[in-house]
Amino acid sequence: MQRSLAARVAARTAALRLTNEKLYNEILERRKAERALRATERKYRGFFENSIEGAYQSTAEGQYLNVNPALARLYGYATTAEMMAAVGNIARDVYADPEMRLRFQEMIERDGKVRNLEYQVRQRTGEILWISESARVVRNRSGKIVCYEGTIRDITARKRAEDEAARLRQQMLQLQKMDAIGTLASGIAHDFNNILGGIMGYVELAQDDLPPGSGAESHLKEVWKAIHRAKQLVRQILAFSREAAPERRKVRLAMLVSEATRLLRATIPATVAIEEEILTETDEIIADPAQIHQVLVNLGTNASHAMSGRAGRLLLRLEHAAIGGKKPALKLSVRDTGHGIPPDILQRIFEPFFTTKGVHEGTGLGLSVVHGIVKSHGGEIRVESTPGAGTTFMIFLPLALEAPQ
Amino acid sequence: MAHILVIEDDEHMRGSLAQTLERLGHRVTTAVDGKVGVASAAVAPPDLVITDLIMPEKEGLETIMELRQHQPSIRIIAMSGGGRLSNEDYLHLAKRFGAQFTLAKPFTRDELKAVLAQALAS
What pLDDT, in 10s, does the model give residues A231-278? Predict the structure, then answer.
């Protein structure tokens, strides 16, 4: 009896020990799991807190539940707490256009997410930023929305560059349009002057043949007056096509070079690397800025055509020089690494209507316009070219003297 | 009286200029473009050439250069109705290419006579 009791106690004790061990192991397992969970949480919390991109969680109604320091910084707040306190309603306090919030909500609730949605937000100081947002809707098991969570990137610099490029493209289009109108107008003017020349000659011949006192003589005098009116009209059309009389004022050539470089960057293929070297501090000339701009754009565009379809380098350099070895001047070089110009063609490039381009591709006027403009500014133009290696145009323009006002 | 070669592609301009020159007492040969003009000058060298600048076939600047190559002392008046460049610019170019005198179209008979007198006296 005693033995059987002892045996039962022993059996029970053993079972208890087993249960204890199991329990102990379970506790160990759970602790391990908890530690792992905490580590994971720390990891993700750290990721959220230290992320370079802005990140947030918010209610669907537009209250932040959580924002990270990157987002607070982006929106101009010192701390996340400051931002959470200041922003009561995202649509009202963050969106530059509160209507945009409605569109955002419509998209995110329809698709469950938005990817790279670009819109404007207002910083704490009122400054406008362009941001790109990717976000998703978090729902519980019954499908009810728990929150939105997303990341936000600042794309203001890119947007500004895009706007600038669009503005420059527009400017280029305008220049091309003016050029086309100018070409058309000058074509009309040229033909009209020829026609008027013929009429003028024949009117004078007819006047010779009339007996004195003839009635036709007074009629021909009226024709003569009409011819002079037509002549004035042609002159006006030509003046318009050249944007009226050229302007002459003190301008800084370095600034015109930089402006043209920017325009060229926006319009010529990215395979051409454009470099600008300003090697002088005195850069004032007396000039028509629009015409000098035209010179730079024409030379730059020609250079890019010479490098078409392959990688190349376009260098615009401004330095001090002298015209004829004495008159102080600025030397502007436009150098390309294009196909170069054969010697037999080189001597003809400044001739009007001379072109190596096909019909409809070039007017043959670009370089003659450049030549005309440089000459009318009292300057010189030279060209050096090595077939297969590239071409350099050198323009010398007299420096503006410090004349008394 | 001089032998004058008129190179001009515009029919009315060419016709009226030729008749005017004849009435002023000159002998006139006409050519419809630079190519014909250069050929004509080679056959019967004129005392003076009056040439247009923008023409089909052979344009004026090239014509001027060739005429001067064949006959270095030839007197040339370039005339132009202008274009993308101003008339002055074209005529300035023509001078660089070898025309000593220039006339901007349209011109009166008096303007023509003044330039002719200068050219023939040179």
Answer: 877 876 776 565 444 567 889 999 999 888 887 887 788 889 999 999
CB A303 within 8 A of CB A336: yes
What would the pLDDT profile of B71-83 be if each residue is shown by its tens digit? 888 999 999 887 6
Closest CB to A238: pick one of B59, B82, B93.
Answer: B82
Q: Cβ separation of A192 and B81 shorter than 8 Å?
A: yes
Domains of chain B: 3-121 (3.40.50.2300)
- A231 interfacial to chain B (CB closer than 8 Å): yes
A243 CB burial (10 A radius; 0-12, 13-18, 19+): middle
Q: Are residues A61 and A138 in the same domain?
A: yes
Query: Number of folded domains in chain A?
Result: 4
Count CB pairs under 8 A between chains A and B: 108
Q: Is residue A168 part of a domain?
A: no
Which chain B residues contact residue A190 at CB under 8 A?
54, 80-83
The distance of B78 to chain A (nearest Cα, Å) reads 14
Measured CA to CA, the distance from residue A70 to residue A58 in angstroms comes to 16
Residue A220 has phi, psi (to 5 degrees) of: -65, -30
Clarify whether residues A118 and A183 are in a common domain: no
Chain position carrying tokens 């003569």: A224
ipTM given for this complex = 0.86
> Hey, are the CB atoms on A238 and B86 less than 8 Å from each other?
yes
Residue A167 lies in a domain: no
Q: How far is A193 from chain B (nearest CA, A)?
A: 5
Reference A393, options A297, A309, A312, A328; nearest CA is: A297
**DSSP codes, B22-78:** HHTT-EEEEESSHHHHHHHHHHS--SEEEEESS-SSS-HHHHHHHHHHH-TT-EEEE
Spell out the SS3 assignment of A338-399: CCCCCHHHHCCCCCCCCCCCCCCCCCCCHHHHHHHHHHHCCCEEEEEEECCCEEEEEEEEEE
